[in-house]
Design goal:
The longest helix is centred in the N-terminal third of the chain and has 27 residues. The strands form twelve sheets. A seven-stranded mixed beta sheet has the order 2-1-3-4-5-6-7, with helices on both faces. A five-stranded parallel beta sheet has the order 8-11-12-13-14. A four-stranded mixed beta sheet has the order 28-27-29-31, with helices on one face. The relative contact order is 0.07. The protein has 847 residues and is α/β, with parallel strands linked by helices. Strand 35 and strand 36 form a beta hairpin. It contains 31 helices and 40 strands.
Length: 847
């Protein structure tokens, strides 16, 4: 039997299909004599459409993200109904104002070309003569899937067409099967078992009537929907996906130059919080909310094996929520694995800073913590189980440990009031240094959510979202069963207040790359640094004993009464008025967030967070120029000092404060180890003792130059700022080789000033860096514009280790030296060979 599994647009080009990877593994295991192919039509479409209409990554992402407007599904509705102008005007009227004009014009072009693409794709699929074609359909894939299914059945009626995925759950799958007779079968619910049972029925010619959840047709063509399973699959039944087809196709696709590929893994299914308190707006998990997680050892072994097999270190975990038991099992094992992973995970926002730090140490650099509001009363309406202060604490602590946070601000909940938002919006300027929401959105009513299932919660008159009627030619009753998104009368705040919220969040997003607020706790005092435009002060020292105690107590949300009680219990002679006056003063300085009678301070620990923030310009990502320090006085002369000077804070004004200077440290030839020790002690800024001079000649000068370059490279990789000066020795044009290093204060030479300006303008973290995997090293290089990704599969660890601190060229064969230099990853400094890329240890929080 030949089975072809298809992942249609608008699935993300960055990620393989978890569903199809799992099905390929299951089918291969249970039908070893069968041929199983996965066609990544999302990648294929990107290549096809780019040649005909041009399609940028941003445009593809817009299509992928526009599911709730219907834009992406409407594009392929022309292929579904074989009409290049299918309901053009009706759709344009429907989305007026919601879709930018340039994207609407682009959509019309894509809409007109969709029938041609589907015909091309189906022709190539059928050329391989499959017996079964299975489509996974989730969110914006539906119309593209149905269009391809229709054409397959018209061209080859003998081919069996099967649908499964999120769009097929519950009543949706039954409606799809009833409404589109060219679909032979629809798998509803978790398909690992039901799909393989269906294949056995097709092979044996037996009836599918007893396969749970399956929709099928009898001899008369009548649609039947078997009852869905009452219990979800146990965690032991979840298999490791096979992504071979995706990574082979991605490497050959235009997507390979647009986006780094990611692994998609799952450690659990369901939601342990949703089992107890189903968030009122959440329609995820469909028919199965029950939480199940894989054994910790199995998950770690599976994850590391997949990174080794596919040589990919970017990992997206598909779970709805982190199993908290993993903090004591999975997280320590990943931290000890020796791989530089970049993992994204969904967590709950009430985690503490120590727990967040452990995630970062394990390679979990991005989280989606389920923050949807900062108003405690609105969060209670959502049944989120957290407060506004806890959500702000999460944002603050994530900044402290350099953890990226993805979140969206929702509004439009029944019973929310204008007052729920007034105080929160007024306090946004105090939060401009914390990760802003990706956007602000009125809630959509999703199938399977409590708002859908329980009209008494406030949304009683639900209708399928208006775009379904423009995309599909189906009766209202069928659309109601097939739809995932529903329209309802708006609830909650007024349009005026919603506009104020949107503008306030737009201002937050604009100020975030430039805003900074940090603390350095010196035990007997706390020094704060502020660059947020809404607050005029720059540095502040909290040194009264009871005030420092209060500041530390406010790391956790508490009421004024509790704060006073704890201060008195610690023998501080203060009264309620003292506390009220202090909080009033700190509120004016933008140090606090208050909600629901509780207060929490908003000051992260200094970690050079601003160096992790990108802005974009015509040449690509870069730091805001103001974030890079300017010249700090005359550069020290060579030989004037012999030690590194270290500070707890990179801000120049704050560095002048007592207690911020940490002293001097040896400036030796083992920078890799010594810089790691500086980072462990909390160093944030370092000054080299003398300029780095290249091209002077002589073994001592070569070693001195490499020592300086190595320190700058290692400090840059750890996110520390550096005071250093560079003399390129007459080869000033070679500065781009070093442009991934933290910009120097000065560059010697007649064009040094122009080079320095360009260096600062184009610098960003991780511009040229490497990461360690199991049996390989990955290098990402953006120094020359377009991204270059290099995989070093057979890495001699000893040779690489020697190159990190500068190795003698005489220790290598001429052919090795030639290959090193040709790669652009090794630079020759006189008699020494030196490794250029920094090791990537931190990731930007703004793209």
């Amino acid at each position: 039997m030949h089975i072809t599994l298809v992942n249609m647009p608008w699935a993300s080009i960055d990620f393989p299909s978890l569903a199809l990877g799992i099905l390929k593994r299951r089918v291969t295991d249970e039908f070893p004599d069968s041929r199983v192919d996965v066609v990544n039509a999302n990648l294929d479409y990107l290549d096809w459409i780019t040649e005909r209409a041009g399609l940028t990554r941003a445009e593809y992402t817009f299509c992928w993200d526009s599911y709730f407007t219907g834009y992406s599904e409407w594009i392929f509705s022309s292929a579904l109904y074989d009409d290049p102008r299918w309901r053009n005007d009706e759709f344009a009227d429907l989305v007026a104002g919601a879709v930018p004009g340039d994207m609407l014009n682009k959509g019309r072009h894509l809409h007109a070309l969709a029938p041609e693409y589907i015909a091309s794709l189906v022709g190539r699929i059928l050329a391989d003569r499959p017996d079964v074609v299975g489509f996974s359909t989730t969110f914006a894939q539906n119309s593209a899937v149905l269009a391809a299914a229709r054409l397959i059945k018209e061209a080859a009626p003998e081919v069996c067409v099967v649908l499964g995925g999120g769009n097929c759950d519950g009543p949706q799958g039954a409606a799809l099967h009833r409404g589109f007779p060219f679909v032979d079968y629809v798998n509803r619910g978790e398909g690992e078992v039901s799909f393989t049972r269906l294949l056995a029925c097709l092979r044996d010619g037996s009836s599918p009537a007893d396969i749970p959840g399956l929709c099928w047709r009898d001899e008369d063509g009548t649609s039947h929907a078997n009852a869905m399973s009452a219990a979800p699959l146990p965690a032991s039944a979840l298999v490791t996906p096979d992504y071979t087809d995706y990574f082979e196709q991605h490497a050959a696709s235009r997507a390979g130059a647009m986006a780094e590929p990611h692994l998609v893994v799952e450690s659990s299914r369901g939601c342990w919080w949703g089992q107890k308190h189903h968030c009122t707006f959440c329609g995820l998990n469909g028919s199965f909310m029950e939480f199940r997680s894989k054994s910790p050892d199995r998950f770690v072994d599976e994850l590391l094996a997949m990174t080794e097999r596919h040589r990919v270190l970017n990992v997206a975990v598909a779970d709805n929520i982190l199993d908290m038991a993993y903090l004591r099992s999975v997280v320590p094992r990943l931290a000890e694995a020796g791989c530089d992973l970049r993992i994204s995970y969904e967590i709950k926002s009430n985690m503490r800073r120590e727990q967040l730090a452990s995630l970062v140490a394990a390679g979990i650099h991005y989280v989606q913590p389920g923050i949807e509001s900062l108003s405690g009363r609105v969060l209670k309406l959502m049944d989120k189980g957290v407060t506004g202060c806890q959500n702000v604490r999460m944002l603050r602590d994530a900044e402290s440990v350099s953890l990226g946070v993805v979140w969206n601000h929702l509004f439009g909940f029944p019973d929310e009031t204008e007052e729920d938002y007034e105080s929160v919006i007024d306090q946004f300027p105090a939060l401009h240094h914390l990760a802003p929401p990706n956007g602000v959105t009125r809630i959509a009513i999703e199938r399977f959510s409590p708002y859908f299932n329980r009209p008494e919660l406030g949304f009683g008159d639900l209708r399928p979202a208006a775009h379904y009627a423009v995309i599909y030619d189906l009766p209202e009753a069928e659309l109601r069963d097939m739809a995932y998104v529903f329209d309802a009368a708006h609830r909650g705040i007024s349009p005026t207040q919603a506009e104020r919220l949107e503008k306030a969040i737009e201002a937050w997003r604009h100020e975030f790359p430039r805003g900074r607020l940090t603390q350095c706790d010196l035990t007997d005092s706390v020094v704060l640094t502020n660059t947020r435009p809404g607050f005029a002060w720059r540095t502040l020292r909290i040194e009264e004993p009871w005030e420092t105690a209060a500041f530390r107590l406010l790391e956790q949300p508490c009421t004024d009464d509790v704060l006073l009680r704890k201060l008195r219990a610690d023998d501080h002679d203060v009264d309620a008025q003292d506390v009220a006056d202090l909080l009033s003063r700190w509120r004016t300085l933008g140090l606090l967030f208050e909600d629901g009678g509780q207060t929490v301070h908003v000051v992260p620990y200094a970690a050079n967070q601003d160096l992790m923030r990108w802005v974009t310009h015509d040449g690509g990502p870069a730091l805001v120029p103001a974030l890079l320090h300017g010249p700090a006085g005359r550069a020290p002369e060579a030989g004037a000092a012999t030690a590194l000077r270290c500070w707890r804070e990179r801000d120049e004004e704050t560095r002048a404060q007592d207690g911020i200077f940490m002293g001097e440290e040896p400036y030796g030839d083992t920078a890799v180890r010594s810089v790691a020790e500086l980072v462990a002690r909390g160093t944030q800024h370092v000054a080299l003792p003398g300029p780095v001079v290249l091209g002077r000649g002589g073994s001592g000068s070569d070693r001195s130059a490499v020592r300086g370059l190595t320190h700058v490279r290692e400090l840059t990789g750890h996110g520390l700022s550096v005071d250093w000066d560079l003399d390129l020795g007459g080869e000033i044009g070679a500065w781009r080789l070093f442009s991934h290093l933290y910009p120097p204060r000065s560059v010697a030479g007649p064009d040094g000033g122009a080079v320095l300006d360009q260096w600062r303008t184009t610098f960003h973290m991780n511009k040229c860096g490497y990461r360690r995997g199991v049996g390989f090293i990955e290098v990402t290089d953006l120094r020359h514009g377009a991204q270059r990704r290099v995989l070093m599969r057979k890495v001699n660890k000893e040779k690489l280790a020697s190159l990190l601190d500068g190795a003698r060229a005489s220790d290598f064969r001429p052919r090795e030296i030639e290959a090193f230099l040709a790669s652009g990853l090794v630079h020759r400094v006189g008699s020494l060979l030196w490794w250029l890329p920094s090791r990537i240890t931190r990731w930007p929080v703004v793209g």
